[in-house]
């Protein structure tokens, strides 16, 4: 068995989602720090161009997007489960909504001028300028657009009221009674808002939600140890990719195994990754690519939210 290697940086909200899932499952993992801004040459040596954070590496298999990382962690250790029996559809659907709609609101609220001034107060002005330019490029060309701040402020009480209602209706301490992927998908956006005193009241003014968030964050991050990017690339280079899933290859648009394709996100961070299409499953796409540093790797993407194009 290969070690779980998470490529991330401390302030990334989606990385916090992945770290909490690792903690929930009480897994041991290796931590590789990546830059928050492009270029990210060590990361893209593994992914082929995918730049979003985090990325999970298991040997020569590279998993992009926390929706798919959750399923890979589920395969690594089934219990405790991220997808409680009988709630699989509800959990996955609410998590997808939280990762898009709630996170979109959080981004607008976090990047309002007053919050930015506090968040970047100790950093040089040049970094803030570079950061904003990088995030502008991240949201260029995709279907996602920046939600106007006024609209985010206007709608936030509705989102919090719905969350409070769901927590009040369940007998347990989590969104569906027992912990699930839905909790972690909602928690990371609220954790992001808690980052400055400007936006923290958007969470802390709702005591039941703040208490639920404390329970989710209480799972911690599991057992981690540091690893360098060079060591992680060497792991990929020296390991054979895992066997493909036994699930049937299904694509209604005529793509076939062995075809040269590009896979890209449709919302933001739409940089395409080119390679040989190996697998199309109900939840997962797998691409084979070869890199001068990392060797032969299999790059895994969720099917939902990503597109295939011929090359």
From TrEMBL:
Coiled-coil region: none
Superkingdom field: Bacteria
CDD domains: GST_C_family, GST_N_family
GST N-terminal domain span: 2-81
Record InterPro entries: Glutathione-S-Trfase_C_sf, Glutathione_S-Trfase_N, Thioredoxin-like_sf
Name used for this protein in its record: Glutathione S-transferase family protein
Organism ancestry: Bacteria, Pseudomonadati, Pseudomonadota, Gammaproteobacteria, Pseudomonadales
């Amino acid at each position: 068995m290969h070690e779980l290697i998470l490529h991330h940086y401390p302030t990334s909200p989606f990385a916090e989602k992945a770290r909490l899932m690792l903690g929930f499952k009480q897994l041991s993992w290796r931590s590789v720090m990546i830059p928050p801004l492009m270029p990210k040459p060590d990361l893209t040596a593994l992914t082929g161009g995918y730049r979003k954070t985090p990325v999970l590496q298991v040997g020569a298999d590279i998993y992009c997007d926390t929706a798919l990382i959750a399923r890979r962690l589920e395969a690594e250790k089934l219990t405790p489960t991220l997808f409680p029996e009988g709630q699989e559809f509800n959990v996955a659907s609410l998590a997808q909504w939280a990762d898009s709609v709630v996170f979109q609101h959080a981004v607008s609220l976090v990047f309002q001028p007053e919050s930015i001034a506090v968040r970047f107060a100790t950093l040089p002005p040049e970094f803030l300028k570079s950061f904003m330019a990088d995030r502008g490029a991240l949201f260029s060309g995709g279907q996602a657009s920046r939600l106007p701040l006024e609209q985010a402020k206007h709608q936030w009480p509705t989102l919090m009221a719905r969350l409070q209602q769901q927590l009040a209706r369940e007998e347990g301490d989590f969104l569906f009674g027992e912990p699930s992927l839905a909790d972690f998908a909602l928690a990371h956006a609220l954790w992001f808002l808690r980052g400055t005193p400007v936006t923290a009241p958007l969470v802390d003014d709702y005591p039941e939600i703040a208490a639920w968030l404390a329970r989710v964050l209480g799972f911690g991050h599991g057992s981690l140890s540091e690893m360098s990017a060079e060591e992680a690339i060497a792991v990929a280079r020296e390991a054979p990719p895992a066997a493909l899933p036994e699930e049937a290859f299904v694509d209604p648009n005529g793509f076939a195994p062995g075809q040269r394709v590009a896979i890209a996100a449709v919302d933001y961070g739409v940089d395409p990754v080119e390679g040989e299409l190996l697998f199309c499953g109900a939840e997962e796409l797998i691409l084979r690519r070869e890199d001068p540093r990392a060797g032969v790797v299999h790059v895994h993407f969720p099917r939902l939210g990503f597109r295939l194009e011929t090359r």
